[in-house]
Amino acid sequence: MRKATGRILTAVGLLIVFMLLSWAEKNLDPYKCRILNLIAINAIWAVSLNLIYGYTGQFSLGHAGIIAIGAYASSLLTVSVVKKAKFFMIEPPIWPISVIQWPFAPSLVVATLAATLFGFLMGFPALQLHGDYMAIVTLGFAEVIRVFIMNLYSITNGALGVKAVPAYTTLLWSWGCLAFAIFIVKKLGDSSYGRAFKAIREDEVAAETIGISVFHHKLLAFTIASLFAGLGGVLWAHLICSTDPNAFTFLLSYQILIVTVMGGMGSLTGSIIGSIIYVGLAELLRPLDTPTTAIRILGTTIRGHPGTRMLVISILFVMIILFYRRGIMGSKEFSWKWLLSKLQAVFKSKTTEQEK
Amino acid sequence: MTILKVDKLSKHFGGLIAVSNFNIQLEQGELVGLIGPNGSGKTTVFNMITGLYKPTEGRIQFDSKGITGLRPDRITAFGISRTFQNIRLFSQLSVLDNVKVGCHLRLRSSPIAAALGLPGYRREEQEIDRESTSLLERVGLADVAQEEAGGLPYGLQRKLEIARALATQPKLLLLDEPAAGMNPAETGELMNFILKIMEQFDLTVWVVEHQMRLIMGICPKILVLDHGVTIAQGTPDEIQNDPKVIEAYLGVEEEDA
Description:
The complex is a heterodimer. By secondary structure, chain A is mostly helical. Chain A has helices at 3-27, 30-55, 63-78, 81-87, 95-99, 104-126, 131-151, 153-156, 171-190, 192-202, 204-209, 214-240, 250-263, 268-284, 308-323, 336-355, and strands at 294-297, 300-303. Chain A has a two-stranded antiparallel sheet. The longest helix of chain A has 27 residues, at 214-240. Chain B has ten helices and ten strands. In chain B, helix 7 (184-201) runs parallel beside helix 8 (212-218). At the A-B interface, helix 9, helix 10, helix 11 and helix 12 of A face helix 2, helix 3, helix 4, helix 5 and helix 6 of B.
C-alpha cells in the first residue's frame, strides 16, 4: 500500500469521526457526551505521559501537579468577576485575578503555557536524577503544588475550590485537542529528536557518548509532555465546571499511568484505546459504588460499597501487567495496512466457506 | 600533527588509584594499542577521555583544545567517538535508526521545526537518511538495515556499534575490546575491518584489547598499563620482550632459597 493512500484514508477517517462527534454533540444526552469528553481528555494525558515515559523512558508521577496548574489557570481566567467576588469567601481575590474575565480560546492558550512553564521548572531539578528517584521527586513536586493551591486563599480560594467555571469544553474542542496532541507527538517521535528520546530510553550512557545532550533532551520531552498535560487540565476544568484541589492528588497521576500502560507504552493509538477502556470501565462499574445495588453471587447478596469500583479496576490492571505486560497495543501503532490485511483475511475465509 | 595529548592523567576512586600519571600523544592517522591485565585501568582511561569520568588530575587536549572534564556529548561533538567493552546498542531500535541517532548531533533544526515537519527539517532528515544508508553500505550492514539491533548476531552487533560511532564523524575512534568474545576467524576479519575504516574515514584509532593477536597484528605502537601505571611503551617486538610486561602478565619466578 502506498503512503498517499494511507494519508487519504486517515483524512477521510478523521472527517467521519468529527462528523460523528458534531452529531453526538447535538443528539446525545449530556451524560454520554461527558463520557466521550472524558475519553478524549484521558487520552491526551496518556499521550503526554507516553512522550516522557514510553518514548524517553523517564518515569514521572508529577502529572497531577501540572494538570492542576492548567485547570486552575484557565478557571481563574474565565470565571466572571462577579462570581469570583461571591465565591472567594475567606479572602477576596488579589488584583489581576479579581478583574480578569477572558473568553475560552486565549485562556486555553495562556493556561497551557503556564502549565508548560511549571513543567519546565519541575523538570529542571527532577531530571538531574534517575529512575525511581526522579519518580519520587516529581511526585513530591505535584504534592507541593497541590498544598500551595490548598493554602493560597487569595489566589485559588484554597480548599473551597473555584466554582462556576464556564462549561466551554465541547466534543469538538476535546477531540480536536487530542488530534493535535497526537499529531505533534507522533511527528516529533518519528523525527530525529524522537530517535534521540528513544536512544536515551534504551541506553543513556551510549546516547551521551554519541553526542546527545541527555539532560536537554529529557527536559525537552518533559516540557512538551507538560504542555499537553496542562491542555488536558484546561479541558477537564471546563468540563467538570469546578476545580477542587482534592481532584489533583497523586491518584490522578496513577490513573494516567494505568491508562498509558494499559494501552501500551510508546503507542499513541494504544493511549486512545486505554482511555476508552478505562473511562468505559469506570462508568460500567459505577453501580458497584452505590449502596443501593445488590448483586447475588452463589446465594449470597453483595451490596455496593463506595470504592469497590477502583478495587476492581486495580485488580484488572494487575492482571494486565501479569499476563499482558506490554499493554494492548505494545509499542505498535494502528495502521491502515494492518486493518486491510485483517479485512482481506476475513473476506477470504468467508468466500472459501461459501465455496464449500 | 598531534591530535590527542594526554598529560599526567590520574583517577582516584576514594582510596583506590585506578590510573596514575598517564601520558600519551597520538599523531593524526596513527593506530595505537593499549593493553594490560584485568583491572589495570584501561577502560578508566577511555572513560576519562570521553567525559564519562572526571579526571582527578591531569589535562586532555584534543585538536589543540582543552577538553578535560567536559560533558560526554560535547567531547563527541569535538570529534572523539567510542565503542564499549560490553556492547551498548539501542537494542529496540532498527539498525538504520541506531546509525541515524549518531547523526543527531549535527541536526540544526529546532524541535518545533521537526514536530511540524517544516521543509528545512525535512531536507536535513533526507540528508541524515542518505548519509546513514551509505554508511551502512560501506561497512556491509545494508542488508540488515531494517532489523532490530538487539536481534543481530554478536559479530554484526560489534560492527554496528563501530558504524554508529562513525556516524558522529569522528577524527579519533576509541575501541574498547572490540574483539572480546570473538573466535580467531572473526578477529582476523575485525582486524581487516579496522584497517579498512581507518583508511576510508581518515581516522586515528586507539584500541584497548586483551587479544594479543589483534594488538600485535595491527598496532605499530603499543602501551602497557598495570595497576594504573604505564609500564612499557614501544613496538610489538619491544613489548613482547620487555621483562616488566612479562612480569605483569605472567608473574615473576621466585628464587629458590
